[in-house]
Design brief:
Layout lengths: L10 H21 L4 H12 L11 H21 L2 H6 L1 H25 L5 H12 L8 H5 L5 H29 L4 H32 L3 H21 L4 H12 L8 H25 L9 H29 L3 H12 L3 H12 L5 H39 L8 E4 L3 H14 L8 E7 L5 H19 L5 E7 L3 H12 L3 E5 L12 H10 L3 E6 L9 E5 L10 H15 L2 E6 L1 H13 L5 E6 L17 E6 L15 H8 L4 E6 L14 H4 L1
Parallel strand pairs: 1-2, 1-4, 2-3, 4-5, 6-7, 6-9, 7-8, 9-10
Antiparallel strand pairs: 5-10
Helix pairs in contact: 1-2, 2-12, 2-16, 3-11, 3-12, 5-6, 5-8, 5-13, 6-8, 6-13, 6-15, 8-14, 8-15, 9-10, 9-11, 10-11, 10-12, 13-14, 13-16, 14-16, 15-16, 17-18, 19-20
Length: 679
Amino acid sequence: MSHFQLPIESPTLIFSIVLAIILFAPLLLNKLRIPHIVGLILAGMLIGPNGFGIVLSDRSFEIFGKVGLLYLMFLASLEMNLLDFKQNKTRGITFGLLTFSVQMILGILAGLYILDFSIIASVLLASMFASHTLITYPLLYRYGVTKQRSVTITISGTIITDLFALILLAIIVGIHKGEMTGWFWFKLIGLFASYLGFIIFTFPRLVKYFFKKYDDNILQFIFILSLMFLSAWMAEIIGLEGIIGAFLAGIVLNRYIPKLSPLMNRIEFVGNALFIPYFLIGVGMLIDLKVLFNGIDALIVVATMTVLAIFGKWLAAFFTQKIFKMNKNERQMIFGLSNSHAAATLAVALIGHKVGILNLDVMNGAIILILISCTVSSFVTEKAAKQLAVEQHDDEEMSIDRQNERILIPIANPATVQNLVNLALLMKDPRKKSRLYALAITTQENDARGLSVASKLLEKVAQIASAADTYVKRISRIDVNVASGIIHTVQEKDITEIIVGLHQKAKIVDSFFGSMTEGVLNGTNRMITIAKCSIPSSMFSRIVVAVPAKAELETGFLLWVDRLANMTRQIGCRIIFYANKESEESLRHVIKSQKYNIRAEFELLDDWDELETLTNVVIADDLFVIICARKSSNSFSPAFEKLPQQLSKYFSENNIALIYPTQFGGVDSPLYCSLDDRL
């Protein structure tokens, strides 16, 4: 019976209880329409030392909770669209300054005139109000609104207000201890600047080297987490909280981890399934409702802290809404996300109490504030997320009415499978859960070895795609030749586009593209992308696109623009179009009208014969995309006959993608209509 004594000390049983809470709390509370985040906090409160005493808040909760908090900040920064961040940085900085200053004013006034605190204690109390933690951020995944501008603004403001609050904590503690010397300011400013420079300069280079050398997703996952924790530890070394370091690591590594990638899927899964829930349960274990009955003074402190902290966050969100003319749902999203107080607030309270600036009532008030603010935040955030999801869906309905995309990847070479699948994941519509189609073909019915190799290749494709939460329909067929097999599959499965690897010449009489690719080009009018990539697709620094004259007149113009825009947005890189004036104008119109929100640049390419001049433009880490044309199409010219020689002579060492757009008689969808039809 000793195994069932309370509190439970068995690590195995403790972990089992935590997993049971993570599993059943959302299932039970969803029926009551209570956000599962509140359920995890309440469960922690009930099983903890201040509840039924089932489990003590031991070292495991401290470690897993800290990891969960760092994970939370890291995920928030990885999810940010850096272009959106740059476009909304003024709004984000404004909100950060507003939420910090409003709370500082309210906190100082409350400390001085309601709670009768000293000026130092009042400033520290105000810094507790100013900081917040993005506890409700995981709710946004369920509604697909992580890219909303209100979310980006709140995340930007979070790092600013938390940074100011934690720096203020360091200054106040320094004043209290009498340490305000030149060395103190050197540590605060000089070391932070050095740390920031080190992260920005070193981390991207380490990632590029590691990703090029090792393509194993598990190794990449461990490497990325190592960098995140290193950044958090370095932030703590110079006197800041680890959450600042985790957030900065996410910002720096953001563009190397596409949203639709096996690596990102692993990062999100591990965090949302284990570490973040563990952190929320640990927060609940700190809550002690008995402090509400410790006398009228304690009750006044708790009530003052709770009311002013929540009201101040709403006021900052209200001012932000009015200044930038945002709607009510965006205001509620900003308020909901920024209202939850946890990590930074608790850090300020603990340190302030430890050094003797804040009394025990404030410490207890901080615990109750965490419970109430997180509860309010969960309900407000979920309601706002639902409304914004409806608005987002309406906006998408007004854009291109995309049919169900069906991307086919014929495979034969094990060395190119990884890059072809990753390319397909980047090009597909990230908002759709559409499947990929993988095709392996054998040309002899009784070729047991060929069938075995095909089966292994298809399994590898499925593993790569499933790691990115994408289903693959595996197709193995026997046909007279590979080209015939691809064409028949296109017809049978109503394939919209094909992605193949560039043919490697085996004989001197071979053509540049190979008989298979040429056979497919002649046998189908669907879009075909022929790719050769020597580096992982997430490592592309730019996408350089050569566009022939009259490309905008082709049936598949909108489709290839859409695919390249998806890739650019996923990677977070620049895309540079080289085109004539007429094509440039059409490209600008499509990119603007479809609200792709990508970093698109345009350069003049008047004569297709000048293609080889781009050798001075395309560098090793670029993807060079050439928009080609089939014979008899509007954009075809005799200059295309020289393309194989130009590629072999001038671009043999570059990453290349040749796109043959859908031609005359494509499937019946606005994506396949000419630009003239849309206009």
